[in-house]
């Protein structure tokens, strides 16, 4: 079934990026959030992102205007009734995602695919909240979405071959490289990446090095493009903590225990770049 209109649920860092990429690829987007502020911020971020593409001569100015005109920002989830494909990118909390998928199931036309951009939560469990588990799939974009090539396409236990293939196809239409992953906590990227970042937070809390030095060491010593603590701030410390809780709870291995210093930062509202302060300060707290 052809996809023309994509519903993006959640207008945070990921929802904005996913919307931008969908618009730049010629799709109409219905972007939903509970927060007007988030929708306004997202509109600004998407506009700036499309301006960059015009400056780099990747799209014409007229295409940017057309793309912006194809964006509907709404706090009313029933607007997803016009969508041919939905991607959920709301806050990383299982009970929230399950309740959102129940709602999506009643709104998005039957036979259409419901994808989740979850970083770690079981796609199978989210799918079980709907009456169309064979049409629920993980579509895990990377941050920042416009720059990162990968989309992990995650098969839940009941995801059909047709749903998987259609999601791979859509990922390619968005200019991404899909990689298949099975439904295991954290999938591939976060199973490997997040314990490394957690270890960097332990190193910081145990005084092995200052944040700048841990990051510099990993950039120069392991050839990482950015240090683990700066990456933690980019991901969002609340999201990171939630992923660690999922890994720890579901895999039951103490090696995934979230560093208490990470939890303290989240308690303090230091969520990383998006809140203006995390392990570093971004001057807009
Ligand atoms: P974020 O905190 O920037 O944004 C989350 C948004 O969800 C907020 O705007 C919030 O208002 C909205 N929201 C919360 N409840 C809602 C509801 N009931 N209905 C509609 N909107 C609601 O978080 P993010 O970094 O964009 O992450 C979103 C999802 O993407 C999470 O599942 C996360 O794990 C995943 N993800 C994040 C990254 C990353 O690096 N940050 C990478 C890949 C995947």
Structure description:
- It is a single chain.
- It is built from eleven helices and eight strands.
- It has helices at 13-24, 36-55, 61-69, 94-107, 123-127, 161-173, 189-205, 211-222, 228-235, 237-251, 260-267; strands spanning 5-9, 28-32, 71-74, 85-88, 113-116, 136-141, 150-155, 177-182.
- An eight-stranded mixed beta sheet has the order 3-2-1-4-5-6-7-8, with helices on both faces.
- It binds nicotinamide-adenine-dinucleotide (NAD).
- The site of nicotinamide-adenine-dinucleotide has 28 residues, from helix 1, helix 4 and strand 6.
- Nicotinamide-adenine-dinucleotide (NAD) binds at residues 9-15, 32-35, 38, 89-92, 96, 100, 117-119, 140-141, 143, 235-236, 239, 274.
Short description:
With 285 residues, the protein is an alpha/beta fold. The protein has helices spanning 13-24, 36-55, 61-69, 94-107, 123-127, 161-173, 189-205, 211-222, 228-235, 237-251, 260-267; strands at residues 5-9, 28-32, 71-74, 85-88, 113-116, 136-141, 150-155, 177-182.
Ions, cofactors and other ligands present here are:
nicotinamide-adenine-dinucleotide
Please tally the β strands and state the result. 8
Domain tally = 2
Q: Decide which structural class fits the backbone.
A: alpha/beta
CATH class category of the largest domain: Alpha Beta
Query: What's the overall geometry?
Result: globular
Question: What's the helical proportion of residues?
Answer: 40-55%
Secondary-structure element order, as H and E?
A: EHEHHEEHEHEEHEHHHHH
The total of helices stands at: 11
Compute the separation of the termini in Å: 45 Å
Looking at the structure, the CATH topology of the largest domain is: Rossmann fold
The percentage of residues in β strands lies in: 5-15%
How would you write the strand order of the largest sheet? Answer: 3-2-1-4-5-6-7-8
Integer-rounded radius of gyration: 19 Å
């Amino acid at each position: 079934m052809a996809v023309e209109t994509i519903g993006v649920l959640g207008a945070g860092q990921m929802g904005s990026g996913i919307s931008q990429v969908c618009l730049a690829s010629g799709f109409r987007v219905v972007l939903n959030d509970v927060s007007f502020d988030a929708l306004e911020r997202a509109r600004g971020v998407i506009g700036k992102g499309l301006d960059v593409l015009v400056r780099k001569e990747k799209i014409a100015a007229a295409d940017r205007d057309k793309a912006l005109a194809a964006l509907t920002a709404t706090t009313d989830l029933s607007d997803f009734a016009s969508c041919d494909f939905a991607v959920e990118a709301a806050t990383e909390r299982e009970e929230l995602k399950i309740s959102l998928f129940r709602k999506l199931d009643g709104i998005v036309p039957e036979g259409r695919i419901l994808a989740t951009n979850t970083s770690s939560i079981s796609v199978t469990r989210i799918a079980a909240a709907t009456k169309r588990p064979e049409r629920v799939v993980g579509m895990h974009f990377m941050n920042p979405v416009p720059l990162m090539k990968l989309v992990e396409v995650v098969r839940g236990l009941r995801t059909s071959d047709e749903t998987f293939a259609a999601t791979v196809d859509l990922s390619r239409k968005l200019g991404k490289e899909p990689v298949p992953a099975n439904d295991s906590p954290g999938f591939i990227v976060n199973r490997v990446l997040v314990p490394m970042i957690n270890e960097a937070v332990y190193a910081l809390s145990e005084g092995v090095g200052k944040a700048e030095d841990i990051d510099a060491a990993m950039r120069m010593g392991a050839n990482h493009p950015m240090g683990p603590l700066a990456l933690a701030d980019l991901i969002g410390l609340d999201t990171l903590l939630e992923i660690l809780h999922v890994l720890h709870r579901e895999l039951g291995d103490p090696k995934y225990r979230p560093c208490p210093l990470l939890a303290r930062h989240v308690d303090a509202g230091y969520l990383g770049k998006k809140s203006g302060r995390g392990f570093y300060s971004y001057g807009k707290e």
